[in-house]
Amino acid sequence: MGCRLIPGLRYAPHTTNYSIDFQRIPDLFRPVVKEYIKYRLTTGVTVATLHRVTYSLGNFLTFFVQQYPHAKSLQALSKQDIDTFILALKAEAQVHGWKDNEQRTRHHISDLEELLCYLERIQSPLKPNEPTTRLIWPSHYPRRNDKKGSQVKHIPQTVLDQLDAHLQDLLPTYIPIVILLRASGWRISDVLSLKLDTCLEQDGEKFWLVGDIQKTRVLGHKIPITKEVAVVILTQIEWVKQHYTLEENPKRWLFPALKNNTYRFLYGDPLNAKNVSSSLSERTKVWGKALIVSPISATRWGAGRLRMPTTRPRWEKKRRFAFSPTGC
């Protein structure tokens, strides 16, 4: 199911999740799951949520078909099957070394419960004989560790110092992104969502960075920045205007997709957050300290004063070479 052309559907342009794959859903249940996903579309969920729901349902329904190979519906589903499925999720996590299996289990059970409730409401012939409340109990949900969840994830200061020291060694595309990450403390996804015409405000000698916080949907969030950081933004704005026409960057991204990335460029998307995070992770490994960066996680970049590039002409020279018209 393609997602780009669905009116009103929210998807993050800095990602590559533009379609929903139903191949993981067993043939018997694929039509009803498609109808269920269409229903979820009307509730205002994001593409990322639909991806997760489809993944979770694919895992469970595959498990169910393996348990009941001759079943033509979910009528035989029991509480014991839910117990066994949770044990299977735990065993799979142990095999792969996945640490946050509790969150994964919680998502699987929640997504399954919502599907079963949907089947009950529409009186689907595929629904279980038992009501959902007798199949999924509160005890099936792992307990939340509130103390752990309340902690904000910060990148260690030693790694940030290392990143500041090697700023010039990053790919020219990512240098202004990292400068804004360090100056704002925002997520990569938030920085990549900045717009040319609205990302910078000035009042005399005072400057503010203005953008939308994607995860919490705070629009027009504004934070003060230094004049040096404002110069970086102005330089990036000027570079984009020189290298992209309005037709090539219709959504006015501050960091539009490179022209050699045909797929993202043709759709007018910004840079891919995953590529930015992967590049930073790889560079820090080279420098000696591994930095695992998630583009949309709650990992904070530690807003504060960073050491700006001391050889800006070298950065600009690298950038002009790397992004000549033939290399865009």
Q: How many helices?
A: 13
| N- to C-terminal distance | 31 Å
Radius of gyration using CA atoms only: 24 Å
Total of domains:
2
**Unreliable segments (pLDDT under 50, ≥5 consecutive)?**
2-6, 290-300, 303-328
Biggest sheet overview:
3 strands, antiparallel
Structural class: mainly alpha
Top-tier CATH class of the largest domain: Mainly Alpha
| Fraction of residues in β-strands | 5-15%
Shape verdict: elongated
The CATH architecture classification of the largest domain is Orthogonal Bundle
Can you count the beta strands? 3
Write down the overall mean pLDDT. Answer: 80
Can you walk me through this structure?
This protein is mainly α. It has two domains: 30-149, no CATH class; 157-322, Orthogonal Bundle (hpI Integrase, Chain A), CATH 1.10.443. The protein is built from 13 helices and three strands, in the order H-H-H-H-H-H-H-H-H-E-E-E-H-H-H-H. Strands 1-2-3 form a three-stranded antiparallel sheet. The protein is elongated and about 70 Å long.
